[in-house]
Amino acid sequence: MTDSKSQRYQFFDQHPEVADFREDIIQGLSAAEAYILPKYFYDETGSRLFEEICNTEEYYPTRTEVGIIRDNIDDIVETLGKDCLLIEPGSGDSYKVRLLLDALRPIAYLPIDISRRYLQDEAQKLAAEFTWLKVHAVCADFTGKLELPYHVEATNKVAFFPGSTIGNFLPEQAVFVLDEIRKMVGRGGGLLIGVDLQKDSEILNAAYNDKEGYTEQFNKNLLLRINRELGADFDLDQYKHHAFFNEEKHRIEMHLISLQDQQVTIDGQVFQFKKDQAILTEYSHKYTVEHFQQLAEKAGFRCVKTWIDENGLFSVHYLNLAADSD
Ligand SMILES: C[S@@+](CC[C@H](N)C(=O)[O-])C[C@H]1O[C@@H](n2cnc3c(N)ncnc32)[C@H](O)[C@@H]1O
Predict the structure, then answer these.
(1) Which own/partner pairs from 319-322 qualify as long-range (CB within 8 Å, at least 24 positions apart)?
(2) Residue with the nearest Cα to atom 10 of ligand 1?
(3) Which of 33, 76, 110, 156 is deepest in the core (most CB within 10 A)?
């Protein structure tokens, strides 16, 4: 007999406060080179737009990573081991984890995401679909201290971190995020992570400038969200989406460019933007396999296995704790 969904689904709310959002926006827009942290893309609308981006012809990472997982499913499951506690930071629509669940049979699945309403919807759908699975959804910011919502005795804890979300961080910040994941999974645990690879800039530039305009809407949704939640007055028509591959830094940079001299008021504070001035909204770093493995080692991980698609576009790695990490 299976437990009812209400027995198997739990929700833990550690969503950041609006005051934190306000403070981060004001700090970012006051900087010499204005920026908005990419975690703020993800309100419910942003999460739905990200789904659309993943389905565009140009956005190769999602279908390539899904292909890698499908093609290597037996090997991946054998490497991870059954009966783990499966934790997914930045779980989004939990689409990729569906490929693993039946074979992996985790004791529970913990999706962690900052997009509260979206997380609740997607986690409940998953609990209805997998009638044997315990789904313990955690709404939290994984860039803070990563803690499980309850104490778990020495179980095999595995983190699943697909989508190359790690690429959104500067390499030194990425080491910090990986280090937090390492501490959370502990000795005996591991991390299955998807990392986008360096490639021809034409493919990269197209991926972040889709013809249907979903990436543009996703980028501009940040301004809409700031208007709605912080009472600001950004005029969306006066900003343009701009994304390009920076060859020297091996990263996509996404910006919003001011189309004229203008000012914006947020919570009583006035911000001036010059014509052509940029607000940085996202980095997406692209790695070589070797460079990513070095980064993981800095965070105390050791690379056990790497899977790559036949075109060398994307990589999936299984990491566990290096012998000398605590
Ligand atoms: C690039 S998407 C990847 C989604 C999904 N894992 C995939 O592979 O398609 C990043 C996801 O991480 C979540 N996210 C981004 N920054 C976050 C943060 N600081 N804390 C928690 N979740 C975050 C977003 O809401 C979004 O669902």
Answers:
(1) 319/190, 319/191, 319/193, 320/189, 320/190, 320/191, 321/182, 321/185, 321/186, 321/187, 321/188, 321/189, 321/190, 322/297
(2) 90
(3) 110
Token pair 């913990």: residue? 110
Q: Is the Cβ–Cβ distance between 167 and 314 less than 8 Å?
A: no
Q: What is the pLDDT of residue 2?
A: 58
Q: What are the residues facing 195 on neighbouring strands?
A: 315
Model pLDDT for residues 252-277, shown as the tens digit of each residue: 999 999 999 999 999 899 999 999 99
Region 116-140: mean pLDDT is 97
Of 248, 235, 234, 325, the closest CA to residue 286 belongs to 248
Q: Is 45 in the pocket of ligand 1 (CB under 6 A)?
A: no
Pocket mutation for ligand 1, best pick of 14, 39, 139 (most atoms within 8 Å of C-beta): 39
Instruction: Supply 231's token pair.
Output: 């009472």
Which residues in 137-174 are b (16+ Cβ under 10 Å) and which e? bbbbbbbeebebbeeeeebbbbbbbbbbbbbbbebeeb
Pairing, β 190-196 against β 314-321 = antiparallel
How far is Cα 125 from Cα 56, in angstroms, rounded to an integer?
23
Q: Which residue has the tokens 């997998």?
A: 130
From the list 64, 74, 66, 316, the residue with the least C-alpha distance to 192 is: 316
Q: Which two tokens stand for residue 306?
A: 């790497």
Choose one of 91, 118, 284 to mutate for the ligand 1 pocket test, by most ligand atoms within 8 angstroms of C-beta. 91
- Cα–Cα distance between 163 and 143 in angstroms, integer? 16
Give yes or no for a contact between 118 and 51, defined as CB atoms under 8 angstroms apart: no
